[in-house]
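Entry 12.
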Amino acid sequence: MHSNARRGLYNRRHRSRVRTFEKEFKVLLNEEDHNEAVQAYRRASSALDRAAKTGAIPKERADKKKARLATQLNTIAQ
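Predicted 3D structure (tokens):
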């Protein structure tokens, strides 16, 4: 297998993982379960950091997504 194809599969797996955790977070956010939403935010944040570290997504995009998720989390905390 060529290295480009292997890297593409790796990147796709990390991006898919990020999207899965984001969806899980948004579901818990809609249910207004703050404690579970905090745990889901941590998982999503960690997945974003890992994806950015390996180059699957740009670091700026990961930072922006984490900031937006944190803002959404803070809306149910009040």
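Annotation: The CA atoms of residues 45 and 66 lie 6 Å apart. Helices lie at 3-30, 34-54, 59-77.
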